[in-house]
Write a structure and sequence with these properties.
Elements lengths: L1 H8 L33 E4 L5 E2 L4 H8 L3 E11 L32 E11 L4 E5 L7 H11 L51 E4 L5 E3 L12 H9 L3 E4 L10 E3 L4 E3 L4 H6 L26 H8 L4 H6 L3 H8 L2 H6 L9 H13 L9 H10 L12 H8 L13 H14 L13 E9 L5 E8 L2 E4 L8 H16 L10 E3 L1 H9 L2 E2 L4 E2 L4 E2 L2 E7 L5 E7 L1 E3 L5 E3 L2 E3 L4 E3 L26 H4 L13 H8 L5 H10 L5 H11 L37 H9 L4 H10 L4 H10 L6 H10 L32 E11 L7 E8 L2 E6 L2 E4 L8 E8 L4
Parallel strand pairs: 13-19, 14-22
Antiparallel strand pairs: 1-2, 1-3, 3-4, 4-5, 6-7, 6-8, 8-9, 9-10, 11-12, 11-18, 15-18, 16-17, 19-28, 20-21, 23-24, 24-25, 24-28, 25-26, 26-27
Helix pairs in contact: 8-10, 10-12, 17-18, 18-19, 20-21, 21-22
């Protein structure tokens, strides 16, 4: 028999692999469905790719790849056998077969036991070889099978990939001197203390100065003030401001000239008021361990009425159903060889799992009666747990790929962004959420105005605490709480602020101060105010209540409020009106570019003869680079020295015009025919050539992103492509600001109240939106229970067929009293005009 099995497997031996370090073995979930070893048909694991497939999908993988050998895994769940004393008799066959396979969370270990079964299956004849079968199988097959059976879960946190150069602990970390100068860093509003830049900012860990980094460092701009500060003070360590999380931060050592580790980073940050450890103090289940951070019991009881919720809401929308579930077979048939890494496949899988009902079948009536009579409770189905989808969309994201709890609104926008990226050239279901916001900015001194439009997907409403209708109760509660703290007594029963929804809308429409506003009318900084209105109304409106804020110690805090959010909402009065009669527009001028102090004078030369540090250019030319390329490098890096210019040369040396003489847009004759030339600089206000836009969009990049890249690189295709990769997360707002001026017909008429949907042709002139009336009906909301976004639990309510349904992890049931006043994110659908 051993010889027969060996001969049988000989033709397939080249396709059987042993999992290597880094290989993920998907032995708990199908790549196309939510079938698992506990499903009726079990799970088939390919012995070459280690992908898992349910019984309905394994044939598709065999036909597409020709892989014939699969391991079939099956888990049999049984009721426990009790002994004479009523105790469970532990029994488990093949105990090592599914080592590290996740158990169904609904299993009660005292009530159920399970038996695991594994066998090799050879397609297409479905020849089965039971496992373990060590003596009869070839050694390679035995080793491969044992490795698959004992492989850890594909979703367990993997060890970080090794780097060519491991980051070392800084020699300054232990003995770092910190000045006792009283500096406290606020949780927001940072800017460079020398040039007022607001990106690529670094906090010096000795004296607490916040300064900008080097130009092009980490893909961001800067004037190098952090490095200048080190040269003046010799304070060696700095931390990048936007990388500070409970898990650590990016630290750079100027003296060691490399990124370093700081084991004492939490102590060093706390010196400046940043309580890094308290940013996330919680247990493994996501709940705070501090008593004063414990969520209110009443809130948990009310919201739960005794956390995939977001995906359930998305697939309640016909656009998502049509895009992914309606095209299910086509998406599956044309999926790549590794469907676990394909966004469309995983979205189709998720939508089908939620809408098909295959994973939410209630027991038959006869089974329920039998269980009640015997006082037995069978384990519930696992339902839909989108771990493969979560792993895919979180990959590479510093926050969502971590084990920390994430903010639902941030995750929603991240999912919408993923949908946008993966819908190039096809129907985009996120069009249903997209709308245009009109921003009216007014210079308080000259009274002139500027109107801009930007894309948005979610409206954020403030919760004005001062508008609470129960202020007297709140004041009395505050006094009682302070008295209890002083006398070391138990705190009183909390009182929740009750805020009218109309007050939230009013606060949203109030003018906001514009920080660092530069008035083009005054050619100087001035006071400015901004008001926002809807230029278009989306088909589906996402509304977020701003319940979270940061304390001075950077710890996120939740504002405990109840808001009477209505079932029906009319926002028609918030539609934008555009430039009004009698208003004067601000001149279309840009503020002066702020450069480092030592280069500012050199940047003021005339456009006809730009000032260039010829000594730096010649120093680079001596290395063998073309002289003209060196002069361009020095000019485009702001005369900041040969080091920065050298980095520019390395980044641009493959460009076809690398060695061409420096040509500035202002030096070109902007004749009437220049816009027809794809090589010339377009006149100010014109969009890039359609030919260049078409080339980039054919590569899968969004049209608005392509236009922005071409404008930023003087319509140079090669440089535009580099720009897109350097700015993958670029917001569309800047593009829309440009397009508002250059393409006046790019946006829908703000005064139009048409109920018709915008034509797809609109994308040729701007973002595609589905404008219509501003009347909506509530159909879903997501609630948060806990003290901050870093802890707690999310619960979703969705209105289906006129009844509210609560989604609380794997528990789904009718909701008798949906707590609409305690929601965090609300979803409305537009009402028809009839």
């Amino acid at each position: 028999m051993a010889a027969d099995l060996g001969e049988l497997l000989v033709p397939y031996m080249p396709t059987i692999r042993v999992p290597r370090t880094g290989d993920r073995v998907f032995k708990s979930e199908c790549a196309f469905s939510f079938d698992s070893p506990e499903s009726e048909g079990g799970l088939y694991v390919c012995m070459n790719t280690f992908l898992g497939f349910g019984r309905e999908h394994v044939e598709r993988h065999y036909r597409k790849t020709g892989q014939s050998v699969y391991m079939h895994l099956k888990r049999h769940v049984k009721e426990r056998n009790t002994g004479a004393a009523g105790c469970a008799i532990p029994r488990r066959k093949n105990g090592k077969v599914f080592l590290d396979l996740e158990l169904n969370r609904d299993f009660n270990g005292e009530d159920f036991e399970y038996e695991d079964e594994a066998k090799l299956v050879i397609f297409p004849d479905h020849f089965e070889i039971p496992l373990p079968n060590i003596e009869e199988l070839p050694a390679l097959v035995t080793i491969a099978c044992d490795a698959v059976l004992n492989a850890p879960s594909a979703y367990k946190k993997q060890e970080p990939e090794s780097w060519d150069e491991e980051i070392q602990v800084s020699r300054h970390a232990r003995s770092l001197r910190q000045l006792d100068n009283g500096v406290r860093i606020p949780p927001s509003g940072w800017k460079c203390q020398k040039c007022e830049m607001r990106e690529n900012l670094w906090l010096n860990l000795t004296d607490g100065t916040v300064l900008c980094g080097k130009w092009f460092f980490d893909g961001s701009g800067g004037n190098g003030h952090a490095l200048v500060h080190y040269k003046e003070t010799k304070y060696p360590l700095a931390v990048k401001m936007d990388t500070i999380t409970p898990d650590g931060a990016d630290v750079y050592s100027f003296e060691e000239e490399e990124a370093v580790l700081d084991p004492h980073i939490s102590d060093h940050l706390s010196h400046f008021g940043i309580d890094m450890l308290q940013m996330q103090t919680k247990t493994e289940n996501g709940h705070h361990t501090e008593n004063n951070s414990r969520p209110r019991v009443s809130e948990w009881e009310v919201i739960q009425e005794s956390g995939m919720k977001l995906k359930a809401v998305l697939f309640s929308i016909p656009d998502f159903q049509r895009m992914y579930v309606g095209n299910l077979q086509r998406i599956f048939d044309y999926s790549p060889l590794d469907p676990s890494q394909d966004f469309a496949t995983q979205m189709a899988k998720l939508g089908h799992g939620l809408l098909s009902g295959l994973y939410s079948k209630p027991p038959m009536k006869s089974e329920l009666i039998e269980q009640v009579m015997k006082e037995e409770y069978k384990h519930q189905q696992k339902g839909v747990s989108p771990r493969m989808m979560k792993s895919l969309i979180s990959r590479g994201h510093p926050e969502f790929s971590s084990t920390r709890q994430q903010d639902a609104q941030e995750f929603l926008l991240h999912v919408i962004n993923m949908v946008e990226r993966n819908s190039a050239g096809s129907e985009n279901p996120s069009d249903a959420f997209r709308f245009l916001v009109e921003e009216r900015i007014q210079c308080c001194q000259s009274r002139r105005v500027r109107y801009n439009q930007r894309v948005d997907y979610c409206i954020q409403l403030p919760a004005p605490f001062e508008a609470a209708t129960n202020r007297e109760e709140l004041l009395a509660y505050g006094a009682k709480r302070r008295e209890a703290e002083e006398n070391m007594r138990a705190p009183p029963e909390p009182v929740r602020a009750r805020i009218p929804f109309t007050a939230c809308l009013q606060a949203f429409t109030e003018p906001d101060n514009v920080p660092d506003f530069w008035s083009s009318a005054l050619q100087a900084k001035s006071a400015g105010v901004k008001t926002s209105r809807f230029a278009t109304f989306p088909e589906y409106l996402i509304l977020q209540i701003k319940k979270f804020t940061f304390g001075v110690d950077w710890v996120p805090k939740k504002i405990d409020v109840a808001i009477d959010v209505p079932d029906f909402l009319d926002l028609s009065r918030m539609r934008a009106t555009g430039l009004q009669a009698g208003e004067q527009e601000l001149p279309d001028l840009l503020p002066p570019i702020v450069l480092a102090e030592d280069t500012r004078d050199n940047s003021m030369g005339s456009a006809d003869s730009p000032e260039i540090d010829e000594a730096a250019a010649m120093q680079l030319a001596e290395m063998g680079f073309p002289v003209e390329a060196c002069r361009k490098a020095v000019y485009y890096t702001g005369n900041m020295g040969p080091e920065m210019a050298f980095n520019w040369i390395i980044a641009h040396m493959e460009e076809p015009d690398f060695a061409e003489p420096l040509t500035l847009p202002s030096m070109i004759d902007l004749g009437p025919s220049i816009s027809d030339s794809p090589l010339g600089a377009p006149p100010l206000g014109n969009s890039p050539p359609e030919e260049s836009i078409a080339i980039l969009t054919s590569m899968g990049f969004p049209r608005t992103h392509s236009i922005q890249a071409l404008k930023a690189t003087n319509n140079n295709l090669e440089r535009a492509l580099d720009w897109i990769f350097i700015h993958p997360e670029e917001e569309e707002s800047d593009v829309l600001s440009d397009m508002a001026a250059t393409e006046p017909n790019g946006f829908s008429n703000a005064n139009s109240h048409s109920n018709s949907t915008v034509s797809p042709d609109r994308e040729a002139a701007g973002p595609r939106v589905k404008d219509g009336p501003g009347r909506y009906e509530l159909f879903a909301f997501i609630s948060h229970m806990g003290a901050s976004t870093m802890s707690g639990h999310y619960v979703c309510h969705i209105k289906k067929e006129g009844r509210w349904v609560i989604y609380n992890d794997h528990k789904v049931c009718l909701s008798e009293r949906p707590p609409k006043d305690l929601g965090y994110i609300y979803f409305y659908h537009r009402l028809s005009s009839s």
